[in-house]
Amino acid sequence: MFMSLRLYNTLTRSKIDFVPIDPAQVRLYACGPTVYDRAHIGNARPIIVFDMLFRVLIHHFGADRVRYVRNITDVDDKINARAAERGISIRDLTDGTAADFGRDTSELGTLPPTLEPRATDHIPEMQALIERLIARGHAYEAEGHVLFHVPSMSGYGGLSHRSLDEMEAGARVEVAPYKKDAMDFVLWKPSPGDLPGWDSPWGRGRPGWHIECSAMSWKHLGEVFDIHAGGIDLIFPHHENEIAQTCCAFGNPVMANVWMHNGFLQVEGEKMSKSLGNFVTIADVLKDWPGDVVRLAMLGTHYRQPINWTLKNLQEAEKALASWFDAAGQGAESRPAPAVMAALCDDLNTPQMITEIHQLRSQSARKALAGTLDFLGFRPKLFEHWREATAPEPSMSIEEIEDLLEQRLAARGARDFAEADRIRNLLAERGIVVKDSPQGSTWEVAR
Ligand SMILES: [Zn+2]
């Protein structure tokens, strides 16, 4: 028996008990990156958050029973523009950026998804979906474009809980003349000249963004699956349109039973933007901090809340990890402590999870702590290596320090604890921290 997993479902705006369609194959889809530039720290949030969900699902149902698909969008007008700007081929840009993304996520210490399909490998599936939508009266061709006709779907807007009026007001800015309705969105568009294009019944063209996710999730997870995840900014229009396409193509009432969305990210209290000069890539952060610190700093805020990404969060995460690794036993089985699991099963309550890990540390529950850290994928060796490589220079010579430590050892041997404490304090004043353990005393430079 395991504790029930409760997840907040954007579709119903409530926490639900998660029950998979098929416990032998639990299916999760998350929208992945559009590979035109290095991923920024805001992109790291869904990767880190839904990695935690993946770990919890694996714990509940078994590693070979969870299928996590996170796509790579490698056909997009931003990609075309960037490749032209840099004077490189589209394939070089998307391959290079996808490889960078793979390095970033593995340094962060997130588990690789079961599958990372690329959009350009799924053009036939996209075309099949579009043909179905046309045949069922949900899409039409106009001037080389194929558009989804939004009024053809009752219940459009059910995820974002917006009325059609509200959405139309937003869509009216610039309406292409070939659209029957201002809300209609592109499934397929013509590709003139040297833009990437594929032959289709509607002429040489390329897909719209939304149809890519409908095609990849259909191919790898089926018409209806368990959980669809992504950033809160994707709810409208991207996820709303994915639902419209998939539900209307197959005549199903839902695309995924549960929809999960992570909140926005700000940097030091401000919206991140290139013009403000506070645009931070994952690679920038990983230059200064180990991946585990970055991951823990992200998990310090509940995923549905907006997060303020600050240097202070990173420093606190570093301190917490150092104290946990110090206190953890060795060689424990990879298993989360029950209180940690309970926090995660409550809609991924990671702030509570962190509180529970601090509890394990203060209770000296060394094995439970080690098992929990291992379950979470924290890597003590990498962390220790980083701390050694970045340790500040001591303010005294090593001979002086070791000399004082020997005097302290002798004082302790003679049960002169006042003298031992005096030496410890003397070292502390000079920024040297002494750590006592059953194996003896060690020292490090305070940070
Ligand atoms: Zn998507």
UniProtKB/TrEMBL annotation:
Enzymatic reactions: tRNA(Cys) + L-cysteine + ATP = L-cysteinyl-tRNA(Cys) + AMP + diphosphate
Major subcellular location class: cytoplasm
EC number(s) per entry: 6.1.1.16
Subcellular location: Cytoplasm
Superkingdom of origin organism: Bacteria
Cofactor: Zn(2+)
MF annotations from Gene Ontology: cysteine-tRNA ligase activity
Residues that hold ATP according to the record: K274
Family, similarity comment: Belongs to the class-I aminoacyl-tRNA synthetase family.
Protein name: Cysteine--tRNA ligase
Native source species: Terrihabitans rhizophilus
Underlying gene: cysS
